[in-house]
Amino acid sequence: MIAVSIGTETDGSILCPSHANSAVGIKPTVGLTSRAGVVPVSPRQDTIGTVADAVHVLDAIAGFDEFDPATREASKYIPYGGYKQFLKANGLKGKRIGVVRNPFLSSVGEYERQAFESHVRILRQGGATVFDKLEISNIETISNATRSGEAVALLAEFKVSVNAYLKQLVVSPVRTLADVIAFNQKFSDSVSILPNENLTAKFSPL
User: Fold this and answer.
1) d(Cα 26, Cα 50) in Å, to the nearest integer?
2) Around Cβ 187, how many Cβ atoms within 10 Å?
3) Which residues, in sequence order, are bridge partners of residue 9?
4) CA distance 28 to 71
5) Distance between CA 78 and CA 80 in Å, rounded?
6) What is the distance between the alpha carbons of residues 175 and 191, in angstroms, rounded to a whole number?
7) How far apart are CA 26 and CA 53, in angstroms?
8) Cβ atoms within 10 Å of 55's Cβ, excluding its own
9) Which of 18, 127, 128, 171 is most buried by its number of CB atoms within 10 A?
10) pLDDT, tens digit (0-9, with 9 covering 90-100), for 76-127
């Protein structure tokens, strides 16, 4: 039985397992929690969040860390007394919540759709003002990793940030992404590697 867990999300690694396990997950704004010591992918998207008993863990891990520059500015906006003070039975009253259905509900099953509608009703019953069926301009482009430029950004930032991460390790024979690729190639018979994974990392921008 796991009371709480902490994960790093670049593109769904907190929200997706939370959704699949019917657990509460918080993906903090980048900089609210430190990423120091975490294997990086994209500095502009990586963030450390919680799954289950989320707000208590968030209060414990939020704040400034000299080893993660992004926390310097974000720490100024942490409310005095932390976030658990907002865990109130009437906490939804007066809140304004927007609901975007398209294209996210187009591929879900009937049970998921019923659960979604139930949650929207609960938000309203709790006193929130729900703005339903909002539309986001250019959502097809934004949600497409290639057309939005996210795919290129992730490859470029991963190469730079993982090299910086490996370089600062105290005890490790692996110091660069090139070392990782060389290891994969040397032990390719016993290591599972996705097609073109080494080439993608090696020749990505920057």
Assistant:
1) 5
2) 10
3) 47
4) 11
5) 6
6) 19
7) 10
8) 16
9) 18
10) 999 999 999 988 889 999 999 999 998 888 888 999 899 999 999 999 999 9
* Beta-bridge partner residues of 129: 96
**Which pLDDT score, from 0 to 100, does residue 195 have?**
54
pLDDT tens by residue, 121-154:
999 999 999 999 999 999 888 888 888 888 888 8
- Provide the 10 A C-beta neighbour count for residue 156: 14
Per DSSP, 176 falls in state S
Cα distance between residue 126 and residue 97, in whole Å: 12
pLDDT digits (tens, 9 = 90+) for 154-165: 888 888 899 999
Query: Which DSSP helix (H) or strand (E) runs through 125?
Result: helix 110-125
Q: Report the alpha-carbon distance of residue 131 to residue 160 in Å, rounded.
A: 41
Burial of 56 (0-12, 13-18, 19+ CB in 10 A): middle
φ, ψ for residue 178 (rounded to 5)? Answer: -60, -35
CB 36 within 8 A of CB 19: no
Give per-residue pLDDT as tens, 28-81.
999 999 999 888 888 888 888 876 578 889 999 999 999 999 999 999 999 999
